[in-house]
Structures are given as C-alpha cells and as structure tokens.
C-alpha cells in the first residue's frame, strides 16, 4: 500500500524533531469535532509509543458523543485550566498543531501557541495554512487530518506497534469528517486505511453507534423542529437554510454537539446544491455559520466572501458578528450572489 505523504527530507525532519523532544503538546481547533479529537488522541498515542511526555490540549468543550473515545480523560481544556496550559506551552519542546490552518482557529489559546518557543509541526487538510511551523504537512485533498495521522504513522513504520487506542480515534475522525464515508471519500487509499485499522480489531459498527446513535431526546426533537418549522427552502436556487436562536436552543436544552450534522439533512432534498445553518451563540453576539454543498459548488468561497470563514469546497464554516436577523439577510444576499453557480 503506497500511502506515503512525506518526502525524504520531511520524513527525516519529522523523526528528528520527535527524537529531540521530551515534552510534547498536541493541540487542535476551537469547538473540536471528531476529526480534531480523533487525530489528537491518535497522534498522542504515537508520541507515547516514542516515549514522550505528551499532553493533548483543546481550546474548549467538545461534544458529549466523543467522550467515550479512549484517553479523553487525559485531555486538558484551555478554557478550564488556562494557567496550567500556559505553563505547558512555555516548557514544551515540541507542539503539534492538528486540524487547523491558522492560529485564530484556536481562539484564546492562540497567544500561548504563537509565543511558545517550542518547535512546531502542522498536520492539517485545510487550505492556505499560515501557522508558523518548522514542518508543515498540508494536504487539502485528504479526507481528514486523521487520514494524515495514519499515513505519517504508517510511513514512520510504527503502525504495527500500535493498538486500539490509536485505531479507534483515527477511524472515528475519518468517519465523522466524511459523514460516515458518504462524501470526500472516493479515493481507494481511504478504504485501504480502513482495512488496516480493522486489523486492530476495532468495532466500526459500535463506533458509528457511539457517535450517531448517542443523542438525547431533546436533540431528536430539536432536529424535528428545525426540519418542520425552521427550514427555508429556496427551490429556484436549489438552496436551503435554517436559523436557531439562543432561546430556541434553550427550549430544547441544547448542549454542545446537539446541532452536529443537522446542516447535512436538507441535502436529502432532490436537486439541492447548498445547505446553510445559522446558530446563535448562547452567550456572545455571534451567529455561527455552517455550509454544505455538493459537486463543484464552492462553499469555501461563499464562506470567505460573506461569513468571515472558509474551509473545504463542499464543507465550510464562518460567523456573523451581529444578530440572527442580520445573519439571515447576509445569507439571502450570499445565495443571490451565487445564483449562477446554484442554478
């Protein structure tokens, strides 16, 4: 299986950076998803194999449906333990930045990251990386950062020595970032990787259930409410959007992760090209935006132009600093501006 992604110089530098380090940090983006948590846990397991003192730091809370993953009890949240995390950034020899392309994606942790004197390595699959790093492994065509983590570990010759504690989170991250392997996952190498992960006796069906069949009754009712009451379908544009206010979230006892995947559901409408989710922050005057599309419609360009964001061709995100009504108006303008591509 030819899945190597590092050239000779990158491979040597990666190995040297790891060998020279004692204290290692693995960090990911704000509001971590399955790929961010999965790649961080998987890479940390590889660092333990290399004999390193490793800590996974996340900027803030991650969804409940990921808390079953092995070694989540060892994750340190920056928003809960800022003083401890700042000290770790100061004493670290090496920091791995996983699943984000710019320091702003780690929110309040950004200053500690950028000012750290540790060597840094970026492993990511988003466009236009600008994290200051000694080694950048950027593969936007990859399905996920977890895929990259597997490929590097495989190329380093370490996969045979790792077990479920590596394979489970890596598989989980690949699964969630491809919507259960329903998008961005047509390359045969992805399924070759899955085959190798299965040799570690992971239960892929249980992993799926733990993620997608692990919601509260409130979340199910929220999903029905969104699809029946809040969905705005614009057939002339082959687009749809919905909005959720903080009061509506409160009504359904919202917890982090409850809206995960909802933006994908309108794509079941025949001929739909674009789905947009607008979710009011529960505390700040910010509306979080998620965009999903099919085929060649450029979600990332729309996110950059209208929503202060970016991402992948068919899956992107951003935000509007303002009210939900303002976000709705911007969404309408965005859809109208891309009329030709949508029609």
Automatic annotation (TrEMBL):
It comes from the Bacteria. Residues 24-174 form the DDH domain. Residues 252-335 form the DHHA1 domain. Pfam families: DHH, DHHA1. One of its GO terms (molecular function) is nucleic acid binding. InterPro entries: DDH_dom, DHH_sf, DHHA1_dom, Oligoribo/pAp-PDE_c-di-AMP_PDE. This is Phosphoesterase RecJ domain-containing protein. It comes from Xylanibacter ruminicola.
